[in-house]
């Protein structure tokens, strides 16, 4: 169905309405985009299969100025040695959705932030989850790219079987 008549002036949204709508949508988008990792007492599950090989490296830079591909490949090496499943594609997809490759990203809007524990880093991990799923041999810093990736992948393995099974904020 197509309408060719112009919208009546009374039916047009006001500038104030448009600005409020954009603000609400932006806030909802930020809140919905946070990857929320809640801690679990269980340890990461053993992998069902070996991780897939990493795809070709393109030296993609994240918004934080670092080399996302190098971080992912270093994390994959550690994950393989520790038996944590995951692929380059699964890690990259989730990193781009959660932080656009910025290792210093902080979500100050979601429920975790309201409770005082904001999601941080490439995969938007909260501190208690990072502590529970930290992978030995990586930095103790939540925003260290490789430590953030490996802890998030370890959590995802425990909760979802693999980071590859995560296709939205969770």
What is the percent of helical residues? 40-55%
> Strand percentage, roughly?
under 5%
Radius of gyration: 19 Å
The helix count comes to 6
Strand order of the largest sheet: 1-2
How far is it from the N-terminal to the C-terminal residue, by CA?
38 Å
Describe the protein.
By secondary structure, this protein is mainly alpha-helical. Helices cover 43% and strands 2% of the residues. The chain has 6 helices and 2 strands; from the N terminus they run H-H-H-E-H-E-H-H. The chain has helices at residues 15-33, 68-82, 88-99, 111-114, 127-133, 145-160, and strands at residues 106-107, 119-120. It has a two-stranded antiparallel sheet with strand order 1-2. Helix 2 (68-82) packs across helix 6 (145-160) and helix 5 (127-133) crosses helix 6 (145-160). It is globular and about 35 Å long. Residues 1-58 have low confidence and may be disordered.
């Amino acid at each position: 169905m197509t309408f060719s008549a112009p919208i009546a002036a009374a039916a047009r949204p006001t500038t104030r309405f448009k600005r409020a709508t954009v603000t609400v949508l932006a806030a909802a988008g930020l809140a919905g985009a946070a990857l929320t990792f809640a801690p679990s007492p269980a340890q990461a599950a053993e992998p069902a299969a070996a991780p897939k090989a990493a795809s070709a490296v393109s030296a993609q830079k994240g918004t934080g100025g670092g080399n996302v591909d190098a971080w992912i490949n270093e994390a994959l090496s550690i994950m393989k040695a520790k038996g944590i499943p995951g692929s380059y594609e699964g890690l990259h997809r989730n990193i781009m959705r959660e932080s656009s490759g910025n290792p210093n990203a902080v979500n100050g809007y979601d429920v975790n932030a309201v409770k005082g524990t904001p999601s941080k880093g490439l995969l938007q991990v909260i501190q208690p989850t990072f502590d529970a799923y930290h992978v030995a041999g990586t930095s103790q810093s939540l925003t260290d790219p490789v430590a953030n990736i490996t802890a998030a992948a370890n959590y995802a393995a425990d909760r979802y079987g693999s980071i590859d099974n995560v296709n939205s904020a969770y």
